[in-house]
Design brief:
This protein is of the alpha+beta class. It has three domains: 90 residues, Uridine Diphospho-n-acetylenolpyruvylglucosamine Reductase, domain 2 (2-Layer Sandwich), CATH 3.30.43; 113 residues, Uridine Diphospho-n-acetylenolpyruvylglucosamine Reductase, domain 3 (2-Layer Sandwich), CATH 3.30.465; 217 residues, Vanillyl-alcohol Oxidase, Chain A, domain 3. Helices cover 33% and strands 21% of the residues. The strands form four sheets. A seven-stranded antiparallel sheet has the order 15-12-14-13-17-18-16. A five-stranded antiparallel sheet has the order 5-6-10-8-9. α12 packs antiparallel against α13. One of its GO terms (molecular function) is FAD binding.
Amino acid sequence: MAFPIPLMVCLLCLLGLTAAASSSLRSCLLSAVDNDATLAAFKGDLLYQTLAVKAYNLNYPVTPAAVTFPTSSAQVSEIVQCASTLGYKVQAKSGGHSYANYGLGGTNGAVVVDLQHMKFFTYNPTTQQATVGAGMLNGELDTHLVAAGNRAVSHGTSPQIGIGGHATIGGLGPTARQWGMELDHVVEAEVVLANGSVVRATATENADLLFAIKGAGASFGVVTEFVLRTEAAPAEAVQYTYTFDLLGSAAERADLFAQWQGFITEKDLSRKLASIITILSGSVVISGTFFGSKAEFEALGLADRFPGATPGNSSALVFTDWLGLAAHWAEQSILDLTGDIPAHFYARCLGFREDTPISADGVQQLFEYLDTAHTGALLWFVIFDLEGGAINDVPMGETGFAHRDVLFWMQSYAVTLGQVGQTTYDFLDGINEVIRNNTPGLGDAVYPGYVDPRLEDPRHSYWGDNLARLQRIKTAVDPDDVFHNPQGVLPA
């Protein structure tokens, strides 16, 4: 087909402008990293996706314009200024485990600030605070803190998760009922803003920015450094697992879940106890950690409360070594069924308050649904994770993270061999529908770390009543939405 000459000229002009913009970005970013070619990669480079991009969820392919690997806040500042001046969006990447690849921008054409080289660590024994580079992984942080004086902070069970995302979204984990989430440990942050300025955010300096960073950090800047309060690492803990190979009626599994739900909603439940119930095809697993002695754990009577576990598939292991316990968490994590290998997957989330447990009919219907629904998945599981405790001691208006009334979270998760199909979407949607239909008053809270690109109103689901304040702060520090992803906070 022949194109009119004026149209061909326009197309050639556009191609020329695109090439010029790409060339300008390359030269600017290389200058920003002191012309070290190992610290920047660009679309079109050999093995770009494999070596530089490294998408986590293959269901959401994305190609950034460039991926940078700065070694200092000064370089981050120059990178951000390059991108904003040339009209590119920016997102920071720490561990790189966003469920929709938002650390890569979430859509094509972003400039990525990969913080993998920013892993410095210092510890002040007087304040018992640690200063940590935002590229550090939680497993690395554990090692540094123990070496510094047997200290610890809350975080999830995977050692490969980066603090840069975890501590700016939430940071749920086994100790959160005692100490709060990882973001609750943050007392100060160094942040590169959209105009390239490098600022400190504390309770008394840029306090609004600190509020925003602690729950919605990706929308407000690139955090390059955290100052964290630390806790004494527990001297003793019991890791327990009760596996029930319940291949019989849905009623049996429903009864077990109802017992667990009744247990975790008891008013006097110890904050030393972390508990998860995991529903898989053919089995149910109740697991968690008790931070105390074996005698204290046995006094809880969990084995008696949940009888009928499969012989040989239950355990209560005592740990007196924090790093050993953390390593065991990593080995036992249900999410590690997929490993750290990129995969096609989709996940959904619901948050339950103390006054919104699933009704008895709802529990029964859930297990009947799981028995009969077509999944279209290679692997699926549903996790209910007890939280509350110290997390809910913090007022909602103190941090950008808003869901301080959630007692337990549900995450349903499916892995497929290729692109997630409609059958799998329908399967996970059906889980939510069954629960919603049988849980009066259930809200739309979604944990911000369980990104769901199909949410109808994602910003309200992630940030609830804090959204309006976050939008005002966004307008003040990033009015042009330089730090953008498809579900991020927008200027008011």
